[in-house]
Amino acid sequence: MMRTSTLRQALRESFRRKRLSLSTEQQTQFAKEITEQAHSTVFQADTKKIGLYLSFDGELDTNILIQSCWHKGVEVYIPVLHPFSSGHLLFQRYTDKTQMIRNKYGINEPKLDVTATLPCNQLDILFTPLVAFDKLGNRLGMGGGFYDRTLSLLLQNDSSKTRIVGLAHNLQLSETLPVEAWDIPLPAVLTPSRLYEF
Q: According to the annotation, is 60 in a ligand binding site?
């Protein structure tokens, strides 16, 4: 019997290959569709601050969604590796003027400016990346645990009103996923074709 960690890694590689196989045209089309879905099914009239991420490694392209938020006056915050709390994220305001750097994983992030960061429980919506999800809302991430820690903090905070929504391509849906004790299931996942709520 395959160990859970081995199975998860095999699934991670399989789903990453699937999303990397999408053409540039498909990525652009899905980015437009998910932007429309987000505004029609997730955003509320009082949505003012959202957490997002810059797409990487075939993830669903968030650029059109970010641009549409800026156009509508919605503030966008993206993750920055915490400088002294290893494995944790900060969320920093992102604009077209934000100075960017590459972090130790080769991912673009804002140059840290603590005056522009926001506690994640003050976000109206936090959109999270994922490698795969299943029909129970279980999420398979890249394995670093960054978002599991963030989600755990949010869910432990009774005063948090932040809505948590995974973002995924339709092809990232798995019938079932192996889970570990530390995994945090998602209450919702948005794809280009529909909003799943669990």
A: no
